[in-house]
Amino acid sequence: MKHGLANTKSESSMSLAIIDRRNNRVVSSVPVEDSQNPQILPASDTEIWHYLRFDFFKALLKNNAIWLTRLDKQSDKNDGMYSDANARQWSPVIQRLLDRSGFTVQVGKDDGAQLKWTNEILRKRAFIHCWSIRSKESALMWNSFIGGDSRSIAVRSMVGCLSSALEGQPVEILRMLYYPAGQPRPDWSYTAPFSAKAKAAHIHERELRVLTLLESDEAENVDHKLIPTDLKKLIRKVVVHPASSKSFRLEVRNELKTYGIPAYVAGSQLQACDLQAVA
Questions:
Q1: How far is CA 155 from CA 18, 48, 52, 99, 162, in A?
Q2: pLDDT digit string (tens) for 26-37?
């Protein structure tokens, strides 16, 4: 019997279905809990932050485009990969789908190898740009993404502003999901694990991810992509590094003025000692 797996979306959630491709009949389906659906984003007025060094900020303004780094080039070398558990078992939602359909399908050695092989190929064709979902700046995030570079800034925006600034672009905005060790990552598509990370190491990031894939006619072996962005919609406020000088704030303000971005530039609410306390 020829069957395929399909995503079927309702207004508020997603369902997975096994479809008989001979007649397009749904054999069985199961809902995916909203908590496990990365496409369900926070409210549009939820604040998000992006931390970057000043030279990258100037490049952002000059290019009028956000920088997306290839997934397999991230500092986290496991980003976007399946977990070891995926080689032994299906994710709970896929197992429920198989049980409901009456199928008994074990994850075999060849299945694990196929997943890994395909995942490696697609990670080289996927590019991401990351934000942190928080109501205010974070000492932990300053340290994680900037280190000790005081000539750095944090851009504050909102979920709705990010979506509006990227309207019409070939991107997907995803809310990252965090999984404990020993639990399989999403496996209902080859790109599903691109929105999953290890809980213990990354849950503090509270990541909102912009994802794009190479088109079939685009050159491969590039390490980044630039996606045109309406920066006037995106950049709502800029906060300078807690250890930056007073003159640096003026430098940031002048850079924004050069490109006609009417964003407010503020000093940090944190002190250098706050960064040291979470180092």
A1: 43, 8, 8, 46, 11
A2: 989 999 989 899
For the chain, give the number of residues.
279
The residue extents of the domains of the chain are: 1-32, 40-277
Tokens of 166: 């990227």
Q: Which two tokens stand for residue 32?
A: 């995916």
Give pLDDT tens digits for 219-236.
Answer: 778 999 999 999 999 999
> How far, in Å, CA of 177 to CA of 218, rounded?
29
> How many angstroms separate the CA atoms of 93 and 188, rounded?
9
Whether 255 contacts 235, CB under 8 Å: no
3-state secondary structure of 81: coil
Q: Which of 22-26, 172-176, 190-194 has the highest mean pLDDT?
A: 172-176
Whether pLDDT at 175 is above 60: yes
Q: Quick one: CA torsion of 9, 14, 18, 19, rounded to 10 degrees?
A: 0
Neighbouring residues of 89: CB distance < 8 A, sequence distance ≥ 6: 95, 107, 184
Residue 162 neighbours by CB distance under 10 Å? 24
Count of C-beta atoms within a 10 Å radius of residue 147? 12
Per the DSSP assignment, residues forming a β-bridge with 7 are 16
Q: Is 67 exposed, middle or buried (0-12, 13-18, 19+ CB in 10 A)?
A: middle
Residue 197 sits at φ, ψ, to 5 deg, of -140, 165
Q: Give CA angle at 41 (38, 46), nearest 5°.
A: 145
Angle at 66 between CA 214 and CA 158, to 5 degrees: 115
Strands 196-198 and 177-179: parallel
